[in-house]
Amino acid sequence: MSKKFIKCSAAILAAAAMVTGCGLNSTSPTSSGDNEKVTVTFSFWEPSTNRELETILSKFADEYSEKHSNVKIKLMSQPNSGYQEWIQSQFVSDNAPDIQYNQPANLNNQVESGFLVDISEYLNQPNPYNSTGKAWRDDFTAGKVSAAQSFRGENHAIPLSGLGLAFYYNADVYEKLGLKVPKTWDEMIANFKVIQENNIAPVAFMGQKRDAVDWISWQIATGLFSEELLSDPKLNFNGDNNLDNYEIFRAVDEGYYDITVPGKFQDHYKKYLSYLEEYGKYCPNLTGLDEAGAKAQFLSGKAGHIFSGSWDLQGFTTDEKLPFKVGVFPFPKFTKENTEKPGDNMAIVDVTAVAVTNHATKNPKVLEAAVDFLRYITSTEKYAEFVEATYAIPVMDGLDVDESFIAFQGGSRAPLGIYSIGSSKAEFSNYNANISVLAGENLGYDYLASNALNAIKMSIKAKKEKDPGFGKDNNYLIDTLPKILGDFEPYLAE
User: Fold this and answer.
1) What's the CATH code, domain 11-139+349-392?
2) Closest alpha carbon to 158 in 193, 120, 132
3) Mean confidence (pLDDT) of the chain
4) For residue 491, is pLDDT > 90?
5) Residue 100, class by beta-carbon neighbours within 10 Å (0-12 exposed, 13-18 middle, 19+ buried)?
6) Which of 182, 209, 215, 176 is closest to 195 using CA atoms?
């Protein structure tokens, strides 16, 4: 990585050098005395113009063939545009690659069509290239194996890379002002104050980007109230770590959830708005900045922070022309100073994944080699090398990689969207309320709450019009929901 990137670790280079001669042992059938030559095909699209994914996969393929001389891994790099149509045509013509890289929703559809191999037998066994002794599935970060198949199962795909959100910060400003990287909300706000006092914008905020407004909404709501709301059986009906829109619809439709009347939900919403308002005070001109404008403000050194995604990691941290060093830290935690039951940070459940297709079953040795290659590239040493090479956010635990990658991994709670949902056709919705509070507009609580709640009711009405059966008679489709991130268990704040 660039010298502009702080906290960079070179340990992975030593690990990569060690791998060749040391310790990756495989009990794969491909290592046996049977020298039948097999070829495993692996399709993917290249997400980067620098072709980092193809480069590292090619390296792994060569290394694997050196260890297993009877196996050739043939990579099939495809254009991103048209990839889904291409892979579907390969299935139809019975000529699919043996391994494919894809998005979970597409893989889940392929499972339903019978195109993918159930690899649960392998997932339940230790990865022979690791020394953890755990089942292969348990080498991955909690919830990521489920996420690889849209939480509709855990037996047909494994995650390869994730996405995340974190704060990028101007490390030169931090050093000059004697600031420490914040671990709590209050510490972050204290840093914002010092930076503002020194005539620097604390945060470059993409106010014109709806996603960016939702990110802050989710982070604040999840940290403040996820514990209390997820533990409420009248809200979290299926008992997982996610409050789905259908669950919110039922609670609103039945009159249980109402922020317009005195009670705990009104108290929550008022507190939420106060934290949103506090954050907005340190985001000057937020409604005037689109994504490009906010990034330009940060990268020119005129702002101390920007809250953005892992997709900016490589660009922000390897640009030698930047006039300052860039650091990264995860969204700070809330504490009991902020809320009665502080919760974990929100998880980012988006992953890209890999799966073995039914084409591999035509030859048992191809099937074994395909699975074994996936075990090889998700071994601790190889996967750490993959992360460093591709700037992927890790989906596995226990890696010796730069701290910046870990900063984007997030927490254990799905984003709490109770303050961001609502009909887009509403004249004033949760989104409008959020942006107005961030901008410091004083519209009054009653106006904000009544309109935000009405936008949710409009969504419920629209759903009922589209699906007349939606409602009490079919339990608001809650029974069809997959469990996200497992069963709810209280978070023990550090």
Assistant:
1) 3.40.190.10
2) 120
3) 91
4) no
5) buried
6) 176
